[in-house]
Amino acid sequence: MGAVIALGALALALGCVVAVISLDRPVGGRASRRVASLAWPAAPDAAAVAAEATAEEEGTVIAPWDWMPDRGDECHEYRGLRICEGPRMVPRPHGPEAQLARQLGLGTRQVAQALLHEGPARDWVLAVEGEYSDELQWPVRGGRLWRGLLRGDPDGDGEESFPHHGVDIGGDLGAHIHAAADGLVAYSDNELSGYGNVMLVVHVDGAVALYGHCRANYVFAGQQVRAGQVIGEVGETGITRGAHLHFELRVDGEPVCPLPFFRRWLQGRPGPFGPGELAVLRHSCLRAREGYGGAAFDQ
Predict the structure, then answer these.
(1) Torsion angle, CA of 131/89/255/227, rounded to 10 degrees?
(2) Where in the sequence is the domain holding 103, given as residue range(s)?
(3) Which residues contact 151 (CB under 8 A, 6 or more apart)?
(4) How far is it, in rounded angstroms, from Cα 295 to Cα 4?
(5) pLDDT for 247-281, tens place per residue?
(6) What sections of the chain are H helices per DSSP?
(7) Could you tell me the end-to-end alpha-carbon distance of the chain, in angstroms, rounded to an integer?
């Protein structure tokens, strides 16, 4: 893939490293996107925030009516942990969206692995509908940041031995999960060890968002989603210590610190951060850069 990712330690008020993403490859007839620097948008005024909140309250949420078979708790042992990927709650694909997924080869565990390690295929990016934005919407309204990216200790035992490629957002069990941006659902199931019920969404610019540990997924492979749309419920499937959403942002298979892209939502609403959580925000991306040591976190 031709994307080049660089993280620069910009002088930001919150002290978080910002991802500077350059997608050099042209995608079909689309002009290639280049984000030379991330200009954090100003906070919206109170009227705009109130209008958005009203729109969310008045919106209609349609939960799936036909589910794939439940396979029980699906528990297994790994590195000293007992991990339960279930109960599986993912919708049964149907209609033209399911046909699109078949045409593109979406929805399989192999697709999910490719998205996490290599990035999306060109045809998958071309199939995405919607608008590009350099902002992400906070996916759990009122959700609070628990922790950020961590390297993990491959020689350790238990949960701390695992690398942590995203951010954990605590929320009530069953709270709605909102799409962070427009995109195409490429995977929705519970076949990725540790993630439980998980959704992978390809964005217009080729970035991939992951939503893990869900109690229920509301969307299936082949569906288009819009920023702010309810796509699932906060849960505790997979490796968890309580109900929360695990959110990852990846470009060409490399994990990127997503926190700066949430700036508008963090400024425009009562903060999802308590006193101790601000320290997590300040150091999360810096710790990730030191830990991974790969191209995604080099200056």
Answers:
(1) 20
(2) 45-292
(3) 163, 287, 288, 290, 291, 292
(4) 8
(5) 999 999 988 888 878 876 666 544 445 444 445 55
(6) 46-58, 95-104, 109-117, 122-126, 263-268, 275-292
(7) 20
What's the one-letter identity of residue 229? Answer: Q
CATH classification of the domain holding 130: 2.70.70.10
Q: What sign does the dihedral 202-205-210-216 (CA atoms) show?
A: negative
For the entire predicted model, the pTM comes to: 0.74
Is residue 3 situated within a structural domain? Answer: no
The verdict on residue 242 lying in a domain is yes
**DSSP-derived secondary structure for 38-58:** --PPPPPPHHHHHHHHHHHHH
Task: Summarize pLDDT for 6-61 with one digit per residue, the tens.
Answer: 333 333 333 333 333 333 333 333 322 322 223 333 334 444 444 444 444 445 68
Does residue 147 belong to any structural domain of this protein? yes
Nearby residues of 176 by Cβ (< 8 Å), 6 or more positions away: 61, 140, 141, 230, 232, 233, 234
